[in-house]
Each structure stands twice: as structure tokens, then as C-alpha cells.
Write a structure and sequence with these properties.
Elements: E1 13-15, E2 21-23, E3 28-32, E4 36-38, E5 44-48, E6 55-63, E7 69-77, E8 84-85, E9 93-94, H1 103-106, E10 109-110, E11 126-134, E12 137-147, E13 154-160, E14 163-169, E15 178-181, E16 184-185, E17 188-189, H2 191-199, E18 203-207, E19 222-223, H3 224-236, E20 245-250, H4 252-263, E21 267-273, E22 284-286, E23 289-291, E24 302-303, E25 309-310, E26 336-342, H5 350-363, E27 369-374, E28 391-394, E29 399-402, H6 407-428
Parallel strand pairs: 4-12, 15-18, 15-20, 19-22, 20-21, 21-26, 26-27
Antiparallel strand pairs: 1-2, 3-5, 5-8, 6-7, 6-11, 7-9, 7-10, 11-12, 13-14, 14-18, 16-17, 22-23, 24-25, 28-29
Length: 440
């Protein structure tokens, strides 16, 4: 039995005795198991009350925290009972075709392809409006509330010394394993992934690792001791004391995480998503150690047919004699690694870098790593059902660049990678299993 569905299109709605709202047309949208869910959870979408074999358009829309609208649409034909079930019936055209239970979600995109979905306020759910249209007229509408924080998760903004970021604590007193999340989105911490990890029983510090820099000055180096301070702060939390610490990273923060795991003590598990095996862009300093940066050759910049910069081949080869000093000595690490790589990543050669990292560990007699590959995914492998980002502004390049990948394959990669990341952290850090779905 489908759960009560929340409708918000007031002019056409009326209340029924069971508090469900429906259109006077008698057409209803079902969202199961509830119209509320966690951001990374699927929903079962159905439409009932249609005429047998009636063709309708389903349309979805979400507005991100920057006010940018993402949409998707698909055409369906009702069965003999007047029902459309996205888990059984194929889309006949639109943003996707075939049987795609979550197609209205993973295919969401903005009109301008070079935009990335922004979810900066995790205290509010993301709202996905779903409409049924017949002859271009809306005949039913429902809203799926996709919550970022579970009930009881604590969100604590930090300005502790040089540390800038947000700490997410699971419900209860712990003890909880700790995770430092070093993914930076537009200069600040990306909180969504950290909030979702907290639902799984991890204490997570989403770190703005440039927070200690004067944003009006161009950074000349990266101080690894700043990250050491952040990890020490996380360890000192009463709910974390005595627990293991993990790292999760993506892109440039990947080589930072590998450096932390190699030079700092007590890191038990590191997830590196589409990162590099060498230090990049800026020198990294730790005590008397300095790793020079792997740099790039702007002459290798290409242009896609749609006129977007392709920088996938501009970085120098870290295995060339000149740049070998940039390679991070990850064999020094005592913890375990998970390398997640996209074969179609055009930010840089992340698949090549991940294999180099694993080869280095193997050459030093290490078997403390897992390698996860996705053939057609792009650069930004994030949480499940995050809208696909084909291109966006690149801070280092100073332009919009092409990130590669195909929407459906990328969505499947995000779903699979999330499950593998959780299992990896639970295996190497340990965590309580929360029934977080009941905590919305």
C-alpha cells in the first residue's frame, strides 16, 4: 500500500478524510515508502487514476541553494488499469528511455550544461516537485522531500584557531569513529556528504582547508600541519576519543588526503576519489619535509565540440624524471586505502594516477588497498542521486572545463561507490548501525 503523499499545488487540490490531497481529476502520484526520504535513498514513483493506455508526461524539478533550476521529463503510457509504475513501465522518450525507477532524479539537469548542483544548507531538505501532464496541462503534482540530516544529528560550525568547517555528530554520546572530509566546494566545506556519513554513525569534520588562509592573498604553499591540527581537534572530541580516524577526499583534496595518510600518524582508512598520486598545484610542507608540485602544460588544452575547455591531458606525467619528487610516498602509511577512479574523467588522468598509487603500494609489499573503477563516470563522484555535472568553473584553470562522463553511468557509479565507501569505513573504522530512515 502506498503511503500518504504530500501535494503542494493548492489551487487544484482538496482534502480527503485520510488527509491525502489529490486533484479533482482523480489522478494521484504515489511516493513510497514515503514522500520524505534521505537524500541518498530511492523512492518508488507511481501514477494512478489515469485512463487505460493514456499517454502522459512526467516532469521533475529541483531548485538548488543558488536558485538554479534543474529539470527532467519523460513520456509514459498507462497500463490497462490506468497506472504508471516507474519500476515496471518504460519511458517512451524525454530525458531518458526504458525502465528507470529513479530516472526523474538522476537525469535532472540545468538548461545551461556548465552548472553544478549546489546544496549548501543541509538543515533544509531538497525538494523535488513531480508533475503529471496531459496535453500540456498539469493534472497531478507531488513533492519529494529529500532530507540531508537525520533527526538527532548535531551540526556544529567551527572557528577553532585556524580551523574553519562544520562538525557533524551522530545522535548519542558515542564513541564514534572520526572522519575528516576535505572536499571543498567553492571555497567552503561541502556539508552534504558529511551529514549523510553522520547518519551512519561517524563523527565527521567537513573541513574548509583554505579557512586559515587570507582569502585575499594567493596561497603559496599548503601547510600539512594545519590538517594535523584539524585531526587532533577531531580526536579530542569526547564522542571520538580513543576511536579510529578516516579521511575522504575528491579531486585536488585527494592528494592532500594521501599526504596526510603518509606523513601524519593514526590514519586508519583513506578514500581517494579521482585524485592524484602526486602532490599538485602548490608545494606541500610538513616540518622539514617539502613535496614540490606537479604542474601542467597549457599547450595541451583542447576544446570540446561544444566549445568547453578540455584540460584532461594538461598535467605532466608524475612518473617522468623531473616530477618524481612530487609523488607521494604512500608506502609510509599504516592505514588502508580505497581508490575510486573514473575512466571517463576529463579533469585529469585520475584512472592512471590511481593505478600508479596501487602499483607503488604493491611494489613495497603492501596489500592495504582497494581499487574501484567506473568506465563511463565523470569527475565528480558524489552521493547518490546528486545531479550529474558535465562541466563547471574550474578554480585552477580559471575557466569552465569539461569533466567527462555519461549521466546514467555516472549515476550508477555514485550509487555503487557510496555503498562501497560505507562498507570500507565500517570495516576499517567500525561504526554503529543506525536505523536512520526512522530518524527523519
Amino acid at each position: 500500500m502506498l503511503s500518504v503523499v504530500k501535494f503542494v499545488f493548492r489551487p487544484f487540490a482538496r482534502k480527503t478524510p485520510c488527509a491525502k490531497m489529490q486533484y479533482t481529476t482523480g489522478v494521484n502520484i504515489g511516493l513510497s515508502p514515503s514522500y520524505k526520504c534521505s537524500f541518498e535513498d530511492p523512492v518508488h514513483v507511481t501514477v494512478s487514476g489515469l485512463n487505460p493506455q493514456q499517454r502522459v508526461d512526467l516532469r521533475s524539478k529541483i531548485t538548488d541553494d543558488n536558485g538554479l533550476v534543474f529539470t527532467a521529463s519523460a513520456t509514459y503510457k498507462a497500463d490497462d488499469s490506468g497506472q504508471v509504475d516507474l519500476s515496471r513501465h518504460p519511458s517512451l522518450g524525454g530525458s531518458f528511455t526504458g525502465v528507470e525507477p529513479m530516472g526523474l532524479f538522476w537525469s535532472l539537469k540545468a538548461d545551461e550544461q556548465s552548472r553544478k548542483f549546489a546544496k549548501t544548507d543541509v538543515t533544509r531538505p531538497a525538494l523535488v516537485d513531480i508533475e503529471v501532464l496531459s496535453n500540456d496541462k498539469v493534472i497531478a503534482k507531488a513533492t519529494n522531500e529529500r532530507h540531508c540530516m537525520a533527526k538527532g544529528v548535531r551540526r556544529v560550525p567551527l572557528t577553532e584557531g585556524r580551523i574553519r568547517g562544520v562538525l557533524f555528530m551522530p545522535p548519542g554520546t558515542g564513541p564514534f569513529p572520526g572522519i575528516l572530509d576535505t572536499y571543498v566546494f567553492r571555497g567552503g566545506p561541502f556539508e552534504l556528504r558529511a551529514a549523510l556519513l553522520a547518519k551512519q554513525g561517524f563523527a565527521v569534520l567537513a573541513l574548509a582547508f583554505h579557512g586559515y588562509q587570507d582569502t585575499h592573498k594567493k596561497a603559496e604553499k599548503i601547510d600539512l600541519e594545519f590538517f594535523e591540527e584539524s585531526i587532533t581537534f577531531l580526536r579530542q572530541q569526547p564522542e571520538v576519543k580513543g576511536q579510529k580516524i578516516g579521511l575522504i577526499s575528491i579531486s585536488k583534496s585527494g592528494d592532500l588526503a594521501l599526504s596526510m595518510a603518509s606523513f601524519l600518524s593514526g590514519i586508519s582508512a583513506t578514500v581517494c576519489i579521482n585524485g592524484c598520486n602526486a602532490n599538485t598545484l602548490l608545494p606541500i610542507h610538513y616540518k622539514d619535509i617539502c613535496l614540490p608540485p606537479l604542474l601542467w602544460d597549457t599547450g595541451k588544452i583542447k576544446m570540446t565540440p561544444s566549445g568547453i575547455l578540455d584540460v584532461g591531458d594538461v598535467m605532466h606525467d608524475p612518473m617522468s624524471k623531473e616530477y618524481l619528487p612530487c609523488v607521494i610516498p604512500i608506502e609510509r602509511a599504516t592505514g588502508s586505502f580505497m581508490f575510486i577512479m573514473s575512466e571517463a574523467d576529463r579533469n585529469w588522468q585520475s584512472a592512471y594516477y590511481a593505478r600508479l598509487a596501487c602499483d607503488r603500494l604493491k611494489a613495497h609489499g603492501k596489500n592495504n588497498y582497494e581499487l574501484v573503477a567506473y568506465e563511463k563516470a565523470g569527475h565528480f563522484i558524489e552521493v547518490p542521486y546528486m545531479p550529474f555535472c558535465l562541466a563547471n568553473y574550474h578554480a585552477a584553470a580559471g575557466h569552465v572545463v569539461y569533466f567527462g562522463g555519461e549521466p546514467k553511468a555516472h549515476s550508477e557509479a555514485q550509487l555503487d561507490a557510496w555503498s562501497k565507501i560505507l562498507n570500507f569505513f565500517k570495516k576499517h573504522l567500525g561504526a554503529a548501525d543506525y536505523n536512520y530512515k526512522s530518524m527523519l
